[in-house]
Design brief:
9-stranded antiparallel sheet, single chain, binds glycine, alpha+beta, D-amino Acid Aminotransferase, Chain A, domain 1, Dna Ligase, domain 1, 23 strands, binds adenosine monophosphate, 4 domains
């Protein structure tokens, strides 16, 4: 079949890598793609937020299956438009993707189905929000309601920080995303990510992961999109996964269906685990980046069969085949990230690295300039390896990192420390 993947990051490179290995794949196109993706698929320069452009492209290229990678096209209704045009599509409708696009909506769903999560309140008025913070005290969490590229959440350890966040959000720092603010109880514990495929009715867990959000070793420095990840996440034991399915995920899927906005795609549940129980921190309507890279390394070609079963509404008829293995990815980022960074530096040594079912360098922000690969983003490479143990996966990933010649980039040296300690 002919398959179109929308997106251009490490997540989409990993999806393309897995899909390409499946014999069902004839032609594989990624839009817009990047320099690494171009080595295994065709790249097409279309505006993936433009539903009409995407549907026309699918018609012209006889596309049989569309996989939507990032949240922005989901929120823009691109999956709806593809389905309306009769295309088999993996990814939720705009109405269902509200589970990521609106924090207040997710909290309403949790309340409606009694899913455990932090206590919360919503505000469109700064004075009322300030009064609530004064009454609750710190620590407390302040969130812009809408999509803010991962920057709209302030975990305030003092009341002053929380009040400053209110001023910023109602002052327009996050634009429309901050017109409404959610204030939440601070949850202590260990965070982990749980990935579930759902066709709207059936649900199939496909793995767990943990990422490292801070820029520097020891989980210090500014927050980023994620500096590395590993799968599985040991903190998400089988018992906690069962509890999370029964109390959070399945009730959410049922509530979305009851409202007439059944959720189809991957549901990424960010969980906080404390005293052997999980509570929901947030949902995302897509695979995590870089969590997808470790999941795809472990799932391989079957990922396509699972996504097809999701889109075709027959997830009750498929199973995940798991090897008892581990995968780890190290993000290499441009010096300066997540602040300002230079683009255009040359990356050397990639050609000599192994590329097989246990080793892969996924490209996140790269471009091709003449014969060279150059950095074109903040997060640039996801150096990924699989092993019998997490330690083996980590050692293999860092052995590859050490062979990459890129003075303009940096990475953390301690990915996986929590699970390895
Ligand atoms: P979110 O975008 O909702 O995932 O928030 C980003 C990060 O903020 C999460 O990954 C958590 O580390 C943290 N966070 C969000 N909500 C809470 C909460 N209620 N208690 C503690 N930490 C939180
Ligand atoms: N790595 C976190 C995310 O994809 O949201």
């Amino acid at each position: 079949m002919n398959i179109l993947i929308l997106g251009s990051g490490g997540r989409e490179h990993a999806l393309a890598w897995a899909v390409k290995q499946n014999p069902k794949t004839d032609r594989l196109i990624v839009a817009p793609g990047n320099a690494g993706i171009a080595l295994l698929a065709e790249c097409a320069d279309i505006d993936i937020l433009d539903s009409v452009a995407v549907v026309n492209f699918c018609d012209e290229n006889a596309i049989d299956f569309v996989i939507v990678g990032p949240e922005a096209p989901l929120a823009a209704g691109v999956a709806d438009a593809c389905r309306a045009a009769g295309l088999l599509t993996f990814g939720p409708s705009a109405a269902a993707a509200k589970l990521e696009a609106s924090k207040a909506f997710t909290k309403e769903i949790c309340d409606a189905c009694a899913a455990p999560t932090a206590a919360w309140a919503r505000f469109t008025d700064a004075a009322a929000a300030r009064a609530y913070i004064a009454a609750q005290g710190a620590p407390i969490v302040v969130k812009a309601d809408g999509l803010a590229a991962g920057k709209g959440v302030i975990v305030a350890m003092t009341e002053a920080e929380a009040l400053a966040a209110i001023d910023d959000m109602f002052g327009g720092e996050f634009g429309a995303a901050g017109a409404e603010v959610v204030i939440e109880e601070f949850m202590a514990g260990e965070e982990a990510s749980f990935f579930i495929l759902t066709d709207g009715t059936h649900a199939l867990p496909i793995g767990t992961a943990q990422d490292h959000k801070r820029a520097f070793d020891g989980d210090t420095g500014p927050n980023t999109g994620g500096m590395g990840a590993y799968s599985p996440a040991p903190v998400l034991t089988d018992a906690i996964q069962r509890q999370a399915m029964e109390e959070i995920v399945l009730p959410t899927i049922a509530e979305m269906a009851r409202r007439g906005t059944a959720y189809q795609g991957v549901l990424y549940a960010g969980l906080m685990i404390e005293n052997g129980r999980a509570r929901l921190v947030e949902y995302n309507a897509r695979f995590g980046d870089p969590e997808c890279q470790v999941l795809m390394m472990r799932l391989g070609a079957q990922a396509l069969d699972l996504m097809l079963a999701t889109a075709e509404g027959r997830l009750d008829q498929v199973q995940v085949t798991w090897a008892d293995d581990h995968a780890l990815t190290v993000v290499m980022a441009s010096n300066g990230y997540p602040g300002a960074y230079a683009k255009g530096s040359q990356i050397r040594g990639l050609e000599e690295l192994p590329e097989d079912s246990r080793h892969m360098v996924f490209h996140a922000g790269t471009a091709q300039r003449d014969a060279s690969v150059i950095a074109s983003g903040g997060r640039v490479l996801n150096v990924t390896a699989r092993g019998e143990t997490l330690r083996e996966a980590r050692d293999a990933a860092y052995a590859m990192v050490d062979r990459i010649d890129w003075p303009a980039g940096f990475c953390r040296r301690d990915i996986g420390w929590r699970a390895l300690k």
